[in-house]
Amino acid sequence: MEVPILKQGQNLIASIQSALTDADLSQLREALIERVGRFRARGVIVDVTALDVMDSFAVRTLRDIAHMARLRGAETVIVGIQPEVAFAMVQLGLTLKGVATALDLEEGLAFLDRAGQAGLDRPRGRIERA
Amino acid sequence: MPDPVLVPIAADVDVVTARQCGRDVAAAAGFSSGDQTVIAAAISEIARNILMYAKRGEISLNVVANGDRQGVVVVARDQGPGIRDVERALEDGYSTSGGLGLGLPGARRLMDDFDVASTVGQGTTVTMKKWRRLHS
To answer: Is A127 part of a structural domain of the chain?
Structure first.
């Protein structure tokens, strides 16, 4: 099942509607990374509220999306991880380290707004010195 | 006790079917929604292992009673290449497929009982159980 991707301002919102196969997840990754370029997006939200299980493949794919999007100049935030899903993920040893998460879509948008504000002070393309 | 449920595993949609069946069986057996998620996640990992290493196999789901406990028993069988070193395969981060290496050890952490029987060249059987106390 294909995941709908909406564009809202400078952000892309992928709202997962039902259980996804590994192929669906890989397709989502390709589609998002391509659209970051096509729409010059600065933020990506992946809403996983509807996922009742996240296993190692799903988590690896979400992490890949976040890292690949960052390499293309966009910040990613994963929103809507359910409490039971979080519990099972921790037991499995899956942490989404290095990937931003937020409680829900609203918090995710607020996070990207703040990231965007920080980005205005630090224009794209400038070389950071340590 | 309900009849065992058998899910053939030969494509990635079967992984989704297996974990949904696992959730249904656990729900019917009275497991909490948290435990249903845990069981579904463990099934997802071992079903994917079947696809990745053996290409095809099957997962059977059963409900058993043991004294004052009721359990969901998940058996994953394949006739794949087998696991050369089961001890290592149960270590976090060990993978021969380029995966995260969390499948077997992760599933073991999620379930109460976990057993791997594997013969190189003949296949692998993973048996795992989750228990809940009755009348609690």
So the answer is: no
